[in-house]
Amino acid sequence: MDDLQGVLKGQKIAYFSMEIGLRSEIPTYAGGLGVLAGDTIRSAADLNVPLVAVTLVSNKGYFRQILDSSGNQIEHTEEWNPARFMTLLAENVSVKIQNRDVKLRAWLYNCKSLTGGCVPIIFLDTDVEGNEWEDRRITDFLYGGDQRYRLKQEIVLGIGGVRMLEVLGFKVRKYHMNEGHSSLLALELLRRNGTDSTKVKDFCIFTTHTPVEAGHDKFDYGLVEDLIQDKNDVDTLRKFGGADRFNTSLFALNLSNYVNGVTKRHSRISNELFPGYKIQAITNGIHSYTWTSPYFRQLYDRYLPGWANEPELLVRIGGIPDNEIWGAHWSAKRALIDEVNRRTGVGMDYETLTIGFARRMTEYKRATLILSDLERLRKVNRRGKIQLIFAGKAHPHDVAGKQIIRDIFKSIETLKEEIKIVFLENYDMDLAARMVSGVDLWLNTPTRPYEASGTSGMKAAHNGVVNFSVLDGWWIEGWIEGVTGWAMGPQPDENLSEEEAKIAELSDLYNKLYYVIVPMYYDRRDEWFKLINNSIGMVAYYFNSHRMMRRYVTHAYL
Predict the structure, then answer these.
(1) In angstroms, what is the C-alpha Rg of the chain?
(2) I need a labelling partner for 11 at 20 to 30 A (CA). Which of 57, 148, 510, 531 fits?
(3) Could you give the CA distance from residue 492 to residue 471 in angstroms, rounded to a whole number?
(4) Per-residue pLDDT tens digits for 212-226
């Protein structure tokens, strides 16, 4: 308990998230949701926000991605040893699953800030002696298995997490659910408060990240009754979580006094999806220091001392000479190109306009949009050389996502004599940091309105990388055409069909590359410098997790 003594004082906000991204060697994250959770925790530590985080240990990680020469994704387990990074705590709690007592233990990771702040993170683990073999596996794979496996994980996270915090001695004033995965914590709170929903609501905050109906976890009541056999509990879930199927987001909505989406547009869409609920907006941000390359860190330290804990100082980027900003970008670009060539041998060069696309490989992200018309892409390349870097994992069960990777490999093969294109395997936080700082142009092409927020473009902006994106998610708030970057396709309030929107997006994608972006990069470098400056001074200064956390404190936590 020694490691806990310093962090038990006072009341805490308990932040629950199925995944938390802290570093590549701790593979307890799958993508943006987990990385955002990690940034939230880092900013809380920097700002001395009294937070404690709860997640699952994911002993076998998400998965390690191997790609064969045709782009077929092969998934390998990514086993890691929590003992290398964390302290095993002595306390145990148990939860009932199918009337079995499943024991949980906890690992403690202290996220410490240079400001002296510290956020303890509790990693729940069912791989405990005495548990049945299948129960020991519950905390093995992040988002692994079927619905049954997933609901077991949510029982462990929500119910087990509340019990573990209590037994460890934390005094919790609010419970913050990062997505619906942890909503069963509200069931445990109802049990403790005589099913008084008004009382429980006062304790709960819910952040939703999903702008589409299909994205919210739903479980058949047959499965729910099998795993949670207490009739009163199941009746409670039906009452607050939906009569037909148990909807975790609906359960969280009905038992939280403060609910928010993660951009202004996402909140509006969520209000339409769940009419009658008041869903606020707190736009996401990223942890500035973590996602800024060492070259820009040194530059900001020299000219903008204190920027790491006050990212709003980046608004004063105009005081840094352009040649020094370009030098920092050039160093980051060289580091990325060297890594690409080391991994692939493709022979990319430093001079060529380099375009990056890296995120989850799933249909709505549309990684192949830029490859829709190879003849037009060739035309862009004849105007001025371009090279493309892709990265991203498809969920093991996402057949369409895996096909996207194969399609990119086909285009790489088709264009290999003309345009250098690579797909880097096993996308993780380290590779993400290299890419968002090392490319010249960051591409984002989701199908509207499926991007709740997106944060990779914010990371790019911190490194002077210019954004070129569909008007969805956070970019609606960050975009000023030709000033902070470029948009493709219709305005947010234009009501076009998906097919009409795609035609407009493709037209903008190729035309802006051909007529605006490529000529500016090669022939009007002074204008490109303005975009780099504005990316930092008008985007990065605002879209950071310090600003986001201050909003959570004043709007939700106090």
Answers:
(1) 23
(2) 57
(3) 6
(4) 777 799 999 999 999
Residues in the chain: 558
Residues 6+ apart with CB under 8 A from 352: 385, 386, 387, 420
Amino acid at 155: I
- Tokens describing residue 103: 């024991």
| pLDDT given at position 7 | 78
The three-state (H, E, C) secondary structure of 520-548, written as one string = HHHHCHHHHHHHHHHHHHHHHCCCEHHHH
Nearest Cα neighbor of 286 from 137, 130, 149, 474 is 474
Distance of CA 447 to the CA centre of its chain: 18
Q: Is the pLDDT of residue 2 over 60?
A: no
- End-to-end distance of the chain based on CA atoms, in angstroms? 29
CB contact set of 187 (below 8 Å; sequence gap of 6+): 158, 159, 233, 236, 237, 251
Does position 1 have pLDDT exceeding 60, yes or no?
no
Q: Summarize pLDDT for 225-280 with one digit per residue, the tens.
A: 999 999 999 999 999 999 999 999 999 999 999 999 999 999 999 999 999 999 99
What would the DSSP string read from start to end of 366-382? -TTGGGS-HHHHHHHHH
- What's phi and psi for 205, nearest 5 deg? -125, 140
Residue pair 365/499 in contact by the 8 Å Cβ criterion: no
Residues 279, 169: Cα–Cα separation, whole Å: 32
Q: What would the mean pLDDT of 97-115 be, rounded to a whole number?
A: 96
Strand order in the sheet with 280-281: 87-97, 100-112, 118-125, 51-56, 11-17, 171-178, 204-207, 258-261, 280-281
Question: Which pLDDT band holds residue 9 (cuts at 50, 70, 90)?
Answer: confident
pLDDT at res. 387: 98
Q: Do the Cβ atoms of 158 and 16 come closer than 8 Å? A: yes
- What domains lie within the chain, and their CATH numbers? 2-284+548-557 (3.40.50.2000), 349-536 (3.40.50.2000)
Q: Which amino acid is at 439?
A: V
